[in-house]
Predict the structure.
Amino acid sequence: MTPETSEWMLWLGAAAQKSPDLSCLLDTQGRLVYLNPTAERFLLDPHLTQMSWLSSQEELTPREPNHSPKILNHLDALKEAATNQGWQGFIKIQSTREQESHETCLAATLVPLMDTSGEITRYHLSAHEVTALVESTGVHITDTRFALMMELMDDIVSLHDTNFFTLYATPALTRIMGLSARQTTGKSVFRWMHSEDKPRVMQALRRLRRTGEATVRWRHVSRQGACQWLETRVRTLEESWSPTRYLCSTRDIGPQIVNEERVLWRARHDALTELPNRNYFMEQIEKASATLPPEHLLAILFLDLDGFKRINDSLGHETGDTLLRIVAQRLQDTLRLHDVIGRMGGDEFTILLNPIHSADETEILVRRLLAAVARPVLVGGQELFVSASIGVSLYPDDGVDGETLVRHADVAMYQAKQVGNSFRYFDHSMHDATQERLRQERCLRRALEQGEFEMHYQPQMNPRTGEVNSLEALLRWKRPMEEAPISPARFIAVAEECGLIEPLGSWILQNVCEQAAGWLTENGLSPLIAVNVSTIQLTQPWFLRRVEQTLEATGLPPRLLEMEITESALLGKGAAALKTLEGLHELGIRLAVDDFGTGYSSLSYLRDLPLDCLKIDASFLIDLEAPQTQAIIRAIIELSHALDLEVVAEGVEQEKQRAILADLNCDKIQGFLLSPAIPAAAIPEFLKRQNEERKVVLTLAA
């Protein structure tokens, strides 16, 4: 033994002498060879009558009156300590003084000590008194009513020591985790925890020690290897007279996790093809570029089908949807393991080739994709033919972020579209697409100046009662006969990009409020009017004041105006957008989330923002008869109603869709089943006729 070792032995011996806990050394036969003063006071008490070694809290504090505790011999405890590298349990000491019986409870730890050859030479017993804890914290269950209450609790309530060894757990432990109190008492909570969850749980416990409370999700792994998701809330119990303890409440969240994963999956994927949607695809680009080795490339492909519109228009949307699903599967089957394919919408797909070593490798893969699309497709007994045009951009040569790379691939695709069934690499000299946008911008400016826009309105109906009391305002562009029509989605996007959305949005708001106020004054009609609001409008400081001035000038009551905002407008727009939303809400204007479920987003904004309505995107109604789809729609409706939000389903085209949505308690529906968008002049007559028909139906039903 070196001098340094001798000094440490002296220090340790001095610490043991002063320790309030018991500290003992036992030989291999269980004989005491050393006791500190605290241990002498307990174990060498002349009044000691009995000392019991108990393996669990259940034995220490039995629930049943006639329960006979399983008392261990101290040699059994030594044997278990030698086998398991330690033993944890309880020691109950009974003594008699002045003809009165006294009982002391100790929480004990017994560990083997080994020499350099690995042989056990001693055992160290440490213990501290928990009598006050057992008597004062309610762990000692003697009240029958309290015991019954514990048995009826759905969640597991448990008590743990400072090292998170279990001291007590309610009977729900068996129902939820399939474990008995005997199996868990004195054991670490980490014994049944999935290894991947332990770092996250340890981080939560560090937070617990700072704040006194934490909530963590983790997986319990059964002996058969099955995983079960649980959520545990932990609170710190601290008393001056006892060691720190932790009180836990644990519940089974398996069904909740499944629903959350299903909703999250739908939020990140296209409903028709089950491919990643735009937002999720962009995430994959950013992820791939962040981990790409310097000597490698990424290729972004923008693929558009040639001839799809002709098939979709002539054979119907159902045939077109089937064709899209088949093509999507072919593209997936052609790609490599780490490549990613997404659907942008319509017949447009984006593909991430990850990684690429050269442009030649890209060309080989692109030609395989073109060949896969060009093969005939059999749908409903008909052989259909489509081809594809592909634009290619390369990371990092053509851009360093997903938006730029996809935009450049889109520009290259339009070049390929001129030929058909071909591909083009992006080149910075490609200006045709930019010139087309400039032409569209000039047309938009002319349209505003010459009054080529008009408002149409699509009715919204209660699917159970047939009542129509709200409309969505939709912009239409009356283009000159010699010019090709442009879809609203496209010219709104152009207006946003070129800065025309401000005057166009103001024109829409003014016209809608004037028309609605006119219906109210002239016909006594007071339908709620929903107006779409651009992301750019929402973030402009003047927008709130413009809305207020428009309502004052037209005399339209704010309660009759609803503003629809997309998920992207709600998320990531900062304090300015939130202030605008709160201001609109204070004016009495209703706020709705449009196209819900089409973006990858957090559901927290439904709770945190002053919303009144949620509109389910039409893509969710695809295959509405499927139980899985109905389960998702039901979950969205129930969540919305719990948050006091009204639910509108868009894109309802079939009577069976209306019936299902009525059964699911959807508040309103909108789509071609009821009516397409109607010119403003025809709205009063439509509402009058609709309400008269409803009255007739109600009379006949009565």
About this structure: Confidence is low (pLDDT under 50) at residues 1-6, 137-144. The longest strand covers residues 100-114.
